[in-house]
Write a structure and sequence with these properties.
The structure holds two protein chains of two kinds. Chain A is α+β, with helices and mostly antiparallel strands. Helices cover 33% and strands 12% of the residues of chain A. In chain B, helix 2 packs across helix 6, helix 8 packs across helix 12 and helix 17 packs across helix 19. Classes of the chains: A alpha+beta, B mainly alpha.
Amino acid sequence: MQLYVNGQMVEVNSDPDTPLLWVIRDELGMTGTKFGCGLAQCGACSVMLDGKIVRSCVTPLSSVGDAQVTTIEAIEADPVGQRVVEKWIAHQVPQCGYCQSGQVMAATALLKENAKPSRDEIAAAMVNLCRCGTYNVINDAMLDLAGLGANKGETL
Amino acid sequence: MKKILFTLIAIVLVVAAGLSWYVTRKPASPFDAVAAVATPSPDLIAKGKYIARAADCVACHSVPGGKPFAGGLKMGTPLGAIYTTNITPDPKTGIGKYTLADFDRAVRHGVAANGHRLYPAMPYPSYSKMSDADVRALYAYFTHEVAPAAVADKPSEIPSPWNIRWPIALWNLVFAPDTPYQPVKTQDAEWNRGAYLVQGPGHCGSCHTPRGAAFNEKAMDQGGKLYLSGALLDGWYAPSLRNDPNTGIGRWREADIYAFLKNGRNGHGVVFGSMLDAYNNSTQFLTDADLHAIAHYLKSLPGDPARDGKPWAYSATAVADLAPAKRSSVPGAQTFAAKCSFCHQPDGKGQSPWIPALAGSTSSLVPDAASQINIVLNGSGRVMANGMPDSYRMPPYRAQLSDKQVAQVLSFVRSAWGNRGGPVTAKAVADLRKKTDPASPQVIVLQMR
């Protein structure tokens, strides 16, 4: 089966019901996308399909089709993704970092859909879980990216 | 005057004696005079094993982690819990001493070897349709291949006087058929095979046919309009298996029914709830010919437009409600977007056939929301196809979502994408949350695992 990942066509041999996550990690060897819960609850496995956020742990390979898969490895090739990464560094968002590739994906997908989201829209879209509790700094970075000013310590 | 009194007493005595004889008698079996075969052929045993799969004996006569067929599964009834029995060939605790005729009486007539009546939690009203040949094969399998397990039956918890069993004989007289399946001459062989499997060993009606006040199935075959028309049991709503486009399988083709029973999934849905057990233990093991026959028979059952209403049509209206800007103003939309949409998709179409659609799904269209509430609270078990666990599974939200949140997200689902199952109340969620809590003493009628 052919798959378009980070701008390149790749040939994969996994079964059609294999979760995209395991195709990316095990077959393609790209381990930036993380396994968290396997039940679409935490968001650590988030990738973009044609710029829309999906949870790769519950995305069967057969439903990807011709869509362009973007993983964290290529996020800086996307101008919006590059801005997100810059602000993530500026605000020193990650702690342990495990959930952060998913968080960056969620942020990028939101900003691609809506460059100036309101506080409510940010809260509605940024639902990935973080065991370290970096939510406050994620919010700071998001407000900064949305042009709403970095409001230190404000909760989502 | 005295003469009339004597006559009356005499009549009462005769009737009482007749009644007493009737309710304690052992019904006749075609195997009464048949001597046991010392060593049944491997073919007969294999056939019996297949019938045991089709009849899904193991679903109730086993407990997780226990020996196969050793019984012990607790079933709640309104009067108290009962436990399934050991049907392994252990001579002391199981059915090792049963003759073929005893076995036949238990399976097809609900009478144990010692003469007591079984509770109709054992689906003998359906099994009564099984053929003599299948009963003989089943007996060969249970007595010559099933491993004996010395596990004593647990006594029922139904208190006196409700535990007196002879009245069940009268219940049987009214509600339980007692003749094997008779082919319908106007139908072809495939249809008749399907009807036999559905009505007899498959006992589909035990869950899918509504029950009357005496807990009797309202119809035992296609002669009744309510046969397989959908029913609530064990906190799950078993939907109609008739040609109802909304609440049944009217939009399914025969090939879809085959796929559902063979693979546990098709373009319309995935097995869940009690059907998960039926799939994991039973339907996937049936031959292709038998599954096609079942599909063929079910598709012959007409729907009821008066009950089912106008056929569902997809509408994309709810998709806009899930945009980040609108979610917070539509009750349930934010929960759906955050918890449900990654699998079931904002368009409600799921990722067929791996993850089921909610748009137009039977459970989104039936007025009884029990199945949807139950699966949101408790999630689904693993679909095991060909010994391989499924990659995708509904997680339980019991600890994550409040009654109100579950009610709102389900009300959203049941009114989105053309669905019209109707709203769900927080009270209904609270009720089922309590009844499906494994730690709760409050029983669900016929609670299985």
